[in-house]
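Let's study a protein:

===
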Amino acid sequence: MDAWRFERMVSSGRALLDGGDPAAASAVLLEAEALWRGPVLPEVVDVEDVRSLAVRLEERRVTAIEDRMTAELALGHHSAVIGELTALVEAHPLREGLRAQLAVAFYRSGRQAEPSGRSPTAAAPSARSWGSSPVGPSATSR
């Protein structure tokens, strides 16, 4: 993957989105995502500088996807993004932005009665993801 090209395209897509052109933003961000070919330099991930670059690029990749989902929702593609958003919420259960986008997609698709997640991993972060109950033992022992 050409990291610099990816970064430039993501910045351009974000600027287009902020400038009120969700169609162009979506196209640019989708093209940026297409540059992604898997983990960044997995064979040298033990090198601290490479590891921090890989983490930063992965975060940037997910943020770019969130931006593209924002563009798609702005274009009215609510039903079309539900499947992808559901998978993203399952892969990144602690990303509140993705969860909110999924709820918006369901609502605007006329599917208000459906939960914004269909599996335990898509539900609100649980004891399994935090290592303890987020509401504490007193709330669960009543």
User: Anything to note?
Assistant: Confidence is low (pLDDT under 50) at residues 119-123, 136-142.
